[in-house]
Amino acid sequence: MKHKIIRTENYLLVVDDSEIKVGDYFYDNDEELCIYTSNYIVTPNKWDDNKKIIAHLPLNNSPILDGVGLLPTLEDEVEKLADKIYPETYYNAIYVDGWLKARFIQSIQQPKMPINFEYKTKIGIQWVGKYIYE
Q: Apex CA 42: angle with CA 117 and CA 118, to 5°?
């Protein structure tokens, strides 16, 4: 299942229209991360822009949102891309050709950010799948 990713300054978020319960994390229309603290349950409707956060990836050393699904790190994606470009150096990268991979990774000043996440399964709170870029 493909999910659209919302990027904020401190998180990559996957949201949906499911019911927001007391204590749930949600994304509001003003691009602010909020903890819902009302004493009642909210069912989002077509007039309500709040979306329940169902998975996230903290950026900029932001905290993990307790009880919310966790997306894989982007570094894993960079590593996979480096291995595709320099497959012959994968196993001896540390000893012989590590500088090639290091130069490749250092050359990524501003990595592309994903726009979607293709969900496969979940292990605990860790989501398993792949990022989809523009």
A: 10
